[in-house]
Write a structure and sequence with these properties.
Layout lengths: L10 H7 L3 H7 L12 H7 L4 H14 L1 H5 L9 H34 L5 H36 L3 H31 L11 H33 L1
């Protein structure tokens, strides 16, 4: 089998070509959002993983999903307005729906189980702050930054570009903060593995947190590695 990916390929380009690779990299704690320009081989070595095994997994995953991927939208080839609309419809809408539900579940398991599982105090705190940051983040994007980008696409000016660049740098710093929250939560939840004595709500909350992490990584990947470079170069 001919290898599609080799260790010199940028990590973000692995996920662009094979979106399903995002979850594989996430499970190995390889950051393809903040360190997307790093060669995948270097990222694997930094995690002290077996480079040959992980590269084989990535190439096998691509081959298994090759037919399905042909029908998937290649966002790097779509117009900026289409990409923005997709981010809002797919990822912002998901956050509006899931964040309140998760807050309720995590508060419930914190109140019920913190006595026997003190790490839940960290999980509860981290998620509460993350929820506030995400809600503010997506509102600012929808009400301020995305409209500026769309206006610039229609009528590009140097002043508008300078303005957008400043906002994008702020967003990227917020993305770093969000990514760190996710890494910390994964640490405190033991990779989202509920303990043996966990109730059904406890187990479901960890499943939903894992799903949230996957969605956020894809969300931030689209912005950091596709949208922002398209707009500001």
């Amino acid at each position: 089998m001919k290898s599609v990916f080799d260790p010199t390929v940028e990590t973000r380009k692995v996920v662009m070509k094979c979106p399903r690779a995002g979850d594989l990299l996430k499970n190995y704690r390889i950051d393809y959002v903040q360190n997307g320009s790093k060669p995948i081989g270097e990222a694997i070595n930094e995690r002290s993983l077996n480079s040959i095994d992980v590269m084989n997994e990535l190439n096998t995953l691509y081959e298994k999903n090759r037919d399905n991927q042909r029908g998937m939208t290649k966002w790097e080839k779509q117009k900026v307005n289409a990409l923005i609309q997709y981010i809002i419809d797919a990822h912002h809408s998901y956050l509006y729906m899931v964040l309140p539900k998760l807050q309720s579940m995590i508060t419930t398991i914190f109140n019920k189980h913190v006595g026997t599982h003190p790490e839940l105090s960290h999980v509860h705190y981290l998620f509460s702050i993350l929820k506030i940051e995400l809600e503010q983040h997506i509102l600012i994007e929808e009400e301020l930054i995305f409209p500026k980008i769309l206006a610039y696409e229609k009528k590009p000016t140097l002043n508008a570009l300078i303005d957008i660049k400043e906002f994008v740098e702020d967003l990227k710093r917020e993305h770093e903060h969000i990514s760190q929250f996710l890494k910390d939560m994964r640490e405190f939840t033991n990779d989202y593995k509920a303990p043996d004595d966990a109730c059904e709500t406890y187990r479901l909350a960890y499943v939903k947190l894992d799903e949230l992490e996957s969605d956020l990584f894809q969300h931030l990947h689209l912005e950091n590695n596709l949208l922002f470079p398209r707009v500001i170069g």
